[in-house]
Every structure is written in C-alpha cells, then in structure tokens.
Amino acid sequence: MAHNDPRPAAPTMKPWIAGIHAYVPGKSTGADGRKLVKLSANENPLGCSAQALAALACDHTPAAYPDPDATALRAALGREHRIDPARIVCGTGSDELLNLAAQGFAGPGDEVLFSRYSFAVYDIAARRCGATPVEAPDADFGADVDALLAAVTERTRVVFLANPNNPTGTYLPGTEIARLHTGLPSDVLLVLDHAYAEYLEPEEVDGGFELAARAENVLVTRTFSKIFGLAGERIGWATGAPRLIDVLNRIRGPFNVTASGQRAAQAALGDHAFLTRSREANRSERTRFIQAIEALGNHGLRAVPSKANFVLVLFEGAVQAETALQAIGEAGYAVRHLPGQGLPQALRITIGTPQQMDDIAAVLRRLCG
Ligand code: PMP
C-alpha cells in the first residue's frame, strides 16, 4: 500500500459490531481443564427421545442438501400444535430465528427492547443489525410489563420476551402477555421466546400461539434444544402471521436445518411419553432443589421462583457466588455465573439428575457451614 494511501490496512469492523460481546456459552471444563458435568447450558439430563436417536442413526445421504423448507417437520409441527404449516419457519436453533427477527424488522436508528436479566442473544441480535438494545427494568428478576411499555419509544421496532425467562426462570401469565401486546403499537414486533415453554404445566401456557395466530405483529419461537434434548442438532422454529414468516424466509440460510435434524425433531415431537417424563422429572427435582436452597435462607441463599429447567440461586449473605462456583467446580460440576449480565452474586444451575442436585446442594450446605 502506498505511504499516503487513505485506505485502512485491514478490513474495518462496522461500528455497531464493535459493541458486541461474543456470547459466552455454558462451560464443560474447570479452570484446570478438567471435564465437568455440565449443568450450565439447560440441557435435558435424560438426553433425547429414543425415537429421535433412532431417527438420527438411520441411513441418510450426507452428500445431499436437506429439504430447504423442512416440509415434513413443519407439517408435523402444524399437526401437533394445530397451526397452518405456512405460518411456520424452521431455523438453525431458535437463536437463528431471534437474530432474523431483529434483522428483518430493525436497523440503524431503531430500538430493540427487552427486560433486564433476559437472554443474552437479544442484545447481540439488536447490535448485529445496527439497532440500539434497550433494557427495561425488571420486577424481582422477572419481566415487568409496565416497565416494558414505559420504555417503548417511537423508535422501538422489536420487543423480545422469553417466557419462561432465561437466566431467571421467571414467568408471566397469559393475562400479562395480553396486556403487553395490547399496550404495544401495532407496528412493533413482539417476539415471544418459548424456549422453555414445554416445561410449563399444560394449563399454564401463556397464550402465545393464540396471539401469534390472530395478531399481525407477534412471533413465537420454540426450540428442540431444551426439553426435546436435541441441542446438538440445532433446530428451532417460529410461528406468526404469513407476512412475518415471509420476512424470515427471505433472510434465513437456504438449507438452515440439517436432514438429520429435521428427521430427529419430527420423531421427538411424537414421543409424548418422553416429554411427560422429562417435565415430571424436572418438576420434582426443581422443587426438591429449591427446598434445599430455601433451607439455607438464613445464610443469604435465595432461589428465584422458576418455571424452567434451571434455578437462579442468589447469594445475598456471606457466601459469595464466585466461591460457590469454585466449590461446585471442585465437586465436578459446571454451573453458570453471569457477572457480565449484571448478576455477579448469582449462579444459574440447570436441573440435573437427583444425584447431581444432591451433590450441588451438599456443596452449598458445606459452604454455609
Ligand atoms: N431462547 C432462550 C431463552 C434460551 O435460553 C435459548 C438457549 N440458551 C435459546 C433461545 C436458543 O436456543 P437454541 O438456539 O438452541 O434453540
């Protein structure tokens, strides 16, 4: 390059990308490189449905591209949830769809709104497309509809709400979701992120599908990564008005769900017994673990009420979250510390097997002396 050439010596990052902190995934190794049992990524301790495993193992042709439209999977999802498959799009995990929702409807100068202590990808999704992420205050670690509505400006284009929420496990009932939707201008896209919805009791569902079926501005996202136990296959899906689905279809990767993923998801969807077993195991272990934390309440430990497959434990006494993280690591387990998300004195612990939860509770009891 000539000495006085005004061009930079290397490709220049866009200014909005410079503000992004790369997503830090749940760890599976300790500081010393030791392999840990992973209770840090909200995976299903029961694995996945045997039917999904069989579908993954069956003969396929890796040289061929997958069905770009995931036709059979969308039809199966449509039958399962009574949704027109034309109102469904599949993604490389629901992460892809969250990013596409931001990209499709927000850009430089726009705002993307979400609650404090919500899923880290919302901030990244907003910044990726040059929009400004805006955090509304929480209400005791959960989303606060009044605070979200108060934070809406004429620049707000997209609102993300995880229900149940990650990393807090908190949940808003259908009446609150309806109130949020009613309060939003009709040109604002409301994305209801249902990554953990299958862990709710059937009577608890928040009405997101009904809203997405009749409103023009609601997208519901779901995933096969959590209760279905297929995180490694990367399959998510979204439903909403055809206009919204059309936007996501324009900008998604053309072959964004692998053939094996499509097959496994379809098989997993039909295994209701596995889902019931997973939900029940999660509920009973979560209840038992929360009771163990409550028993340490006089030492400043507190469990945020959770409807998901993890519990956010707050350390409000002498025991520091970091100390607990280290002791849990020494006992062989990885859990999630989220200081970067404003939670330096909290650990998010995935609900594992009874033995795993007993081990973690024993470490915490020991620390409390
Ligand atoms: N939404 C929430 C709230 C999550 O916690 C996660 C996973 N951590 C996702 C979406 C994305 O999951 P996936 O991309 O595996 O579908």
UniProtKB/TrEMBL annotation:
Per its UniProt record, what Pfam families does this chain match?
A: Aminotran_1_2 (PF00155)
Its GO biological process annotations read:
L-histidine biosynthetic process
EC number(s) for this protein? 2.6.1.9
Task: State the InterPro entries in the record.
Answer: Aminotransferase_I/II_large, HisP_aminotrans, HistidinolP_aminotransfase, PyrdxlP-dep_Trfase, PyrdxlP-dep_Trfase_major, PyrdxlP-dep_Trfase_small
Keywords from UniProt, A to Z, are:
Amino-acid biosynthesis, Aminotransferase, Histidine biosynthesis, Pyridoxal phosphate, Transferase
Q: Which Gene3D superfamilies match?
A: Aspartate Aminotransferase, domain 1, Type I PLP-dependent aspartate aminotransferase-like (Major domain)
**What's a Gene Ontology MF term here?**
histidinol-phosphate transaminase activity
For the modification N6-(pyridoxal phosphate)lysine, which residues carry it? 226
Required cofactor(s): pyridoxal 5'-phosphate
Q: Which pathway does the record list?
A: Amino-acid biosynthesis; L-histidine biosynthesis; L-histidine from 5-phospho-alpha-D-ribose 1-diphosphate: step 7/9
Domain Aminotransferase class I/classII large, first and last residues per copy? 35-363
The UniProt catalytic activity note for this protein reads: L-histidinol phosphate + 2-oxoglutarate = 3-(imidazol-4-yl)-2-oxopropyl phosphate + L-glutamate
- The UniProt record lists the keyword 4Fe-4S: no
Tagged with keyword NADP: no
Q: Which domain of life is it from?
A: Bacteria
How it assembles, according to the record, is: Homodimer.
The record's similarity note reads: Belongs to the class-II pyridoxal-phosphate-dependent aminotransferase family. Histidinol-phosphate aminotransferase subfamily.
Q: What is this protein called?
A: Histidinol-phosphate aminotransferase
User: From what organism does this protein derive?
Assistant: Qipengyuania flava
